[in-house]
Amino acid sequence: MLRNALGKTFRFLGYTLQYGCIAHCAFEYLGGIVVCSGPSMEPTIQNSDIVFSENLSRHFYCIRKGDIVIVKSPNDPKSNICKRVIGLEGDKVCTSNPSDFLKSHSYVPKGHVWLEGDNLRNSTDSRYYGPVPYGLIRGRIWLKIWPLNDFGFLRASPNGHRFLDD
């Protein structure tokens, strides 16, 4: 009887470990569901919207200008931020705020991206903490799940004029 109970217990622990490893790999490499908070991506993503983030793009270096990404915060490594990619390595980007009279530009260094929120007046982004290392990117958001009346692929940036083609 004890042998039977131990056998069932070890089988249960084995299955738990196997499925836990499968779940970890799925969330790490395929993607997952993310609840967004804060006003920095309005109107594209509202506070408490639920989105799907896929992680394969970052592994295959397929992140492009205009993509919305989940990134480890450069200011607080315990939290993630949601921002739009404005520039990739070598791109010329506008580093000034929209309200600045004189515009300043810079080039994104190798291995980095330039991130900005869609709500430029209420976003802490690369204009404040500079270019972000590509390695901090956790995934690319491509589908809004909730609210249901806004279900679907994410729309283009309301700040398309910030993309420079030099």
Automatic annotation (TrEMBL):
<dbReference type="InterPro" id="IPR019533">
    <property type="entry name" value="Peptidase_S26"/>
</dbReference>
<feature type="active site">
    <location>
        <position position="40"/>
    </location>
</feature>
<keyword id="KW-0645">Protease</keyword>
<dbReference type="Pfam" id="PF10502">
    <property type="entry name" value="Peptidase_S26"/>
</dbReference>
<dbReference type="GO" id="GO:0042720">
    <property type="term" value="C:mitochondrial inner membrane peptidase complex"/>
</dbReference>
<keyword id="KW-0999">Mitochondrion inner membrane</keyword>
<protein>
    <recommendedName>
        <fullName>Mitochondrial inner membrane protease subunit</fullName>
        <ecNumber>3.4.21.-</ecNumber>
    </recommendedName>
</protein>
<dbReference type="InterPro" id="IPR052064">
    <property type="entry name" value="Mito_IMP1_subunit"/>
</dbReference>
<dbReference type="InterPro" id="IPR036286">
    <property type="entry name" value="LexA/Signal_pep-like_sf"/>
</dbReference>
<comment type="subunit">
    <text>Heterodimer of 2 subunits, IMMPL1 and IMMPL2.</text>
</comment>
<keyword id="KW-0496">Mitochondrion</keyword>
<comment type="similarity">
    <text>Belongs to the peptidase S26 family. IMP1 subfamily.</text>
</comment>
<dbReference type="GO" id="GO:0004252">
    <property type="term" value="F:serine-type endopeptidase activity"/>
</dbReference>
<keyword id="KW-0378">Hydrolase</keyword>
<keyword id="KW-0472">Membrane</keyword>
<feature type="domain" description="Peptidase S26">
    <location>
        <begin position="19"/>
        <end position="97"/>
    </location>
</feature>
<feature type="domain" description="Peptidase S26">
    <location>
        <begin position="103"/>
        <end position="146"/>
    </location>
</feature>
<dbReference type="InterPro" id="IPR000223">
    <property type="entry name" value="Pept_S26A_signal_pept_1"/>
</dbReference>
<dbReference type="GO" id="GO:0006465">
    <property type="term" value="P:signal peptide processing"/>
</dbReference>
<dbReference type="GO" id="GO:0006627">
    <property type="term" value="P:protein processing involved in protein targeting to mitochondrion"/>
</dbReference>
<feature type="active site">
    <location>
        <position position="83"/>
    </location>
</feature>
